[in-house]
Amino acid sequence: MNAIEIKNLKKSYGKTLAVKGISFNIRKNEILGLLGPNGAGKTTIIKILAGVLTKDSGKIKILGKDPDKEKEFVANRMNVASPDSELTGIMTVYQNLKVYGKLYGVKNIKERIDYLLDLFEIKDLKHQKLKHLSKGQSTRVLLCKGIINNPEVLLLDECTLGLDPHIAYKTRKIIKELNATILFTSHNMHEVEWLCDRIAFMDKGKILKIGTVSSLKKLIKTEKVKMKFDKSEGLANFFKKLDIKILSLKGDTVVFEIDYKKHKLQDLIEKITKQGFKINDIIIKKASLEDIFIKVAKREL
Amino acid sequence: MKFYRVNALLYKYLKISTNRLERIFDIVYWPVIDLFIWGFVLRYINKLGAVHGSFNFIFGGIILWVFCWRAQQDIAVYVLEDFWSRSLYNLFASPLKLSELVVSLFIFSLMRSILTFGFLFLIAFVLFSFNIFTINLTALALFVLALLLIGWVMGIFISGVIFRYGMQVQIFAWSVAWLIQPFSCVFYPLSSLPGWAQKVAVWLPTTHVFEGLRQVINTGIINWNGLAYAYISSLVLLVLSCLFFKRCVEKAKKLNLLTSHE
User: Closest Cα of chain A to B157: distance in Å?
Assistant: First the structure.
């Protein structure tokens, strides 16, 4: 069952088309990562889903309902955390969370707030005014607000920005363990890879690729290989003859990209040794999400 | 409409008020200054042999004007608080309905108006021996409600303008009520205005309230026609201003202004 269904969604800002007819679904309790450069349209999609921005056209269903027609039903079961959304600086952490607890009709607000503050390790800040907190502390308060109503659907827009590594790790674990459908954007590839069930690459208002991390990785037919030789003379010419692109050649160490459509690594090693080069070390760098991202952005995939 | 969501916003406005000194301060600051200046001026004028009753007209005007001014300013300023704190995103992503936001602003502005009214009543009574409750209580209640309605009209209207045009127009949050005050005949009768100003003033519901106040103080008789005009025009304007507010918020959502107003 799909928790979020988006069909042919379009949004423009003046003459600029920010989202160009996007369609995708997110299954119940799935975490979908939206990746893309700045201005790709990720935040626009999140704002439209959150109900703070009106779409130009297209259809959206959240938990089977049209959010424009059944805002109360949807908003009660959804929440959002984004650096664009702040809380009231002159109010304390507790007061801010109490307001949102009341707005979402949360029962036992006090206990819920205490639990969340404890979870994000900010219990000692409970009675501090928000304006006195650091960026990372404010982000954690925002995350508390984001899950105060135990949402079935959660929109997280770069929500780990400014968190120290320990808290960022803990936050990822909390998010992973939430029993919710999550749309997640981040520039941290490692985070997205670890957290998300599927990933959608966006650029210039379009989804370029969507799939699981492993299925996306299979799209890359090249790998980076670093080889250390006993000598460097003639290496460049030899690789050129084999039609292999050298990325760097420093002393007796060569980094090159092997295209598996053209070569097999085992055959290549054989050819190298037959030519009289002795390989002292080989390091193969598997394609990372970042590599996929760069290739998708360059339209090489 | 769910009262727990109205209650959530009332709690928020209360905490903003108690946490921010200037929000407490402005409950009394300007009205009390007004009262002192007018009080001392009137004492002096009375010594010179002014018309009997002018003291009551002006004090009555100052104290009742609070409802119109306070309601307008509080609605606009508490809307601005969400702009200043950049919390509109979270607010509008929550299940809160626009009607609940408007009702909570109405209720909170009424509460603050009553507080200001209370302060002014005490100061006028203790220092200048003026007791507003000597005025016919039915008439007083009707005047207060009519002025509140007009304050809400202006407050909601200017809030709509703020949603549409952002903080560059925030100055109106403090000044709109003062724009209509000279034509509302708060301290002087309609007949004392120049001809062109009378033509403007007669359309304002506020003018009919303050004209009515003077008539009650003078004769004890309520001008029902004037009050009916004030109520009907205020209610029509209230409906229109609420529709305008809704349209401005929708436009702000369309233009991505809720999260990007500077």
Answer: 21
